[in-house]
Design a protein that fits this description.
By secondary structure, the chain is α/β, with parallel strands linked by helices. The chain has 17 helices and 19 strands. The protein is globular and about 75 Å long.
């Protein structure tokens, strides 16, 4: 069994004993796992020896929430709130699904960029309208297998008509436009669960790194029976129930208008807040919401960059942590972030929460951000026993960074350097499941230049088709703008205060 011994390195293990505190030592990898961590370790004569002098060894980063379906839409949109941006990134009027080769390249590009920037695990909330196709899902799995990354992959589902999942939509959209939105019979709970069981049978556990997860899009977009069936299967298979809740003010208004309560309270009443519930965003949550979330042990994927780009707001991370909610960091899709670099999210998350109020002792600290990017993210993916920290018996998912580089020069506090200074440029080696997938700044699993050349050749025609799709869907933009305008002016009982969510009654 192949061994790798990293000698005389500085180690940040992110385990229960050390946290973000660095210590000197060696790391011995045997096969896919970490065999030993300590000083003066020995290895077999044929082991690969890596000199760790002047190097930092740390766990691979975990991207707790992304969407591979956006990868070709990088750098395309700005100055759009979510409800308008969705019109163009996820159009209501659709063309045929992207071709299989482009689907593969799109997924592979996300994995390549992620690995190059230190992400060894991500949760891909893969959305592939208008149908669920096991062969297409298998194409995504194949791309991630070829790249060598660890991933949870979904096939996101919704079965509530768009106009019934948005406040004010039926009253502000003219009948002739509503008539264009005939999506056919909605997905039934039984049909989706049958599909998921097939995915578990054929794809789950592939190569020991790739898993299928359950991803009902959002409680306002899915019927109660579909969500209940999703949760039952997620619990049975011990995978995340991965969903979007309260990303925008519009969604906060939606809960009140549809159910007379917040969408978190609605989830609670349906019995859908559990340990394996992972919520992307959680921006517009109240104190009562956070109490329910903490008691249930749910997780949140905090998408600090995309929340800012789409004007959604700033999630109340300190108060979520205090309530007992596990926090991971997500990039969200490349179209609403424009990179898949978790280091970018770490820096933004480390800075933006200082705007949450004048009590600076509650501002989020660098070691907390680093926890979110590693073991916290692993917990949101239900992979904390596998990855997220450097511990004997866990998967050898790790990074080797050069400490003799600008982000660490001169060296003061490693956690603060990683959060506020590093951007991925110091990464020399990336190891996933004991396999070196990047070395000396070059990916070893794929020919990067050949992939870039193929994308440059094939994608322009796809983007031209997408531009036509954007023109067709632009007819709905005034409607979505009006929905956004009305929602922002609707009183929902919570207010924004310097980036945090504050219960209005508690301020009186």
């Amino acid at each position: 069994m192949t061994e790798i011994l990293i000698r005389n390195a500085t180690i940040v293990a992110m385990d229960a004993g050390h946290g973000a505190a660095p210590f000197p030592g060696d790391v011995l990898v045997e096969g896919e796992t970490i065999k030993a961590i300590g000083e003066a370790l020995t290895a077999s004569p044929d082991a690969r020896i890596i000199d760790g002098q002047g190097k930092l060894v740390m766990p691979g980063l975990v991207n707790a929430h992304t969407h591979s379906s956006e990868t070709f839409l990088r750098g395309r949109y700005e100055r759009m709130p979510l409800e308008i941006w969705l019109l163009y990134a996820y159009p209501l009027l659709m063309n045929d699904p992207i071709g299989e080769r482009l689907l593969y390249l799109r997924s592979l590009l996300l994995a390549m960029e992620s690995l190059r920037n230190g992400v060894t695990t991500f949760c891909d909330d893969f959305f592939d309208p208008p149908r669920h196709d096991l062969d297409r899902l298998a194409t995504v799995f194949r791309a991630y297998d070829d790249a060598g990354i660890r991933a949870n992959v979904s096939s996101a589902v919704m079965n509530v008509h768009t106009l019934d999942a948005l406040p004010f939509a039926r009253e502000v959209m003219p009948a002739e436009l509503q008539a264009l939105l005939d999506f056919g019979p909605p997905m039934t709970a039984n049909a989706y669960i049958d599909y998921c069981r097939s995915a578990f049978s054929s794809l789950h556990g592939k190569s020991g790194r790739l898993n299928f997860m359950i991803a009902p899009s959002a409680p306002q977009r899915c019927s109660p029976d579909l969500m209940a069936a999703c949760m039952d299967l997620a619990v049975e298979k011990h995978v995340p129930f991965h969903t979007h809740i309260l990303e925008t003010k519009t969604q906060a208004v939606t809960g009140q208008m549809l159910h007379g309560k917040s969408l978190i309270a609605y989830m609670h009443d349906l019995g859908l807040l559990k340990r394996n519930t992972t919520i992307a965003h959680s921006v517009w949550v109240s104190d009562d919401d956070m109490l329910l979330m903490g008691k249930a042990g749910v997780s949140v994927a905090h998408n600090a960059v995309s929340n800012l780009k789409l004007g959604a707001g700033i999630a109340p991370i300190r108060r979520l942590l205090d309530a007992g909610v596990t926090i991971g960091l997500g990039t969200d899709g490349v179209s609403s972030n424009d990179t898949s670099r978790v280091f970018d999210v770490m820096r933004v998350a480390g800075l933006v929460h200082s705007a949450a109020g004048p009590d600076y002792e509650t501002w989020v600290a660098a070691d907390e951000i680093l926890t979110m990017a590693t073991i916290g993210g692993a917990k949101t993916a239900l992979l904390e026993q596998v990855t997220g920290s450097l511990e004997v018996g866990k998967a050898a998912d790790l990074l080797i960074l050069d400490l003799r580089n600008y982000p660490f020069m001169p060296l003061n506090d490693i956690a603060k350097h990683l959060v506020y200074s590093e951007n991925g440029s110091s990464i020399e080696t990336v190891i996933v499941a004991g396999r070196i997938v990047m070395e000396n700044g070059r990916l070893k699993t794929v020919d990067e230049q050949a992939i870039f050349d193929e994308i440059a050749e094939l994608v322009p025609a796809y983007l031209a088709e997408h531009a036509d799709l954007e023109r067709r869907n632009s007819v709905f933009e005034p409607i979505m703008a009006e929905i956004h305008r009305r929602a922002t002016r609707t009183d929902i009982g919570i207010n924004r205060y310097q980036g945090d969510v504050v219960d209005r009654h508690s301020m009186s």
